[in-house]
Amino acid sequence: MLRKTVLEKAESINDRFRHDDILPVIIKNEEIKYPDNMLLFRDANIVMVPSLKDGFHLVPVEAILANSHLPYTERALVVMSPNCGASYVLQDFNETDGLVRVNPLDTTGSTNEILHVYNNAYHISDSLIDFAKRMDVRAWQAANMNALYEIKQHKRTLALR
Predict the structure, then answer these.
(1) CA dist list (Å): 84 to 22, 54, 71, 155
(2) Is residue 7 part of a domain?
(3) How much is the pTM?
């Protein structure tokens, strides 16, 4: 039901705002692998990551890096849920850095916030790009996997008592 509604709305938007061969809304219901995903992030005006919950979502970081070689005014706006794992890591950045946090369950509030930031012409900032370039995702992954393993071991030990 939700998928049908989303597809109908996307079709309506595309019918209204289509320009030459450019579609405003592109929906892919399949995995988009590297490097094609980076090309999409580079070419997007807005990258949405409306996760309700996840561990560490790399999409926002990939979108930031994909825009790193573009002039400021051609960079995207990254919109994500505060529940997105990357939101915690990127907590020192905000709308003036081209990073917007929205509640995916509040569609009216989210729309208003996205339009506010988009209309103020904020884009991914140089400082956000520099931060993303310094991130060591493998170190983050290793630390978190070790923490999960320790928690699992601790639960197993508690269960044996």
Answers:
(1) 29, 6, 27, 26
(2) no
(3) 0.75
Question: Bridge partners of 87?
Answer: none
- φ/ψ (deg, to 5) at 93: -115, 150
Q: Are 90 and 56 in contact (CB under 8 A)?
A: no
Q: What's the distance, CA 55 to chain centroid? A: 13
Domain count, the chain: 1
**Is residue 136 in some structural domain?**
yes
Whether residue 84 contacts residue 51, with contact meaning beta carbons closer than 8 Å, is answered with yes
Question: Which residues, other chains included, contact 23 with Cβ-Cβ below 8 Å and sequence gap of 6+?
Answer: 14
pLDDT in tens, 116-147: 999 999 999 999 999 999 887 676 666 667 66
H-only helix segments in the chain: 2-17, 36-43, 59-66, 85-89, 107-119, 126-134, 137-160
Domain containing residue 134: CATH number: 3.40.50.2000
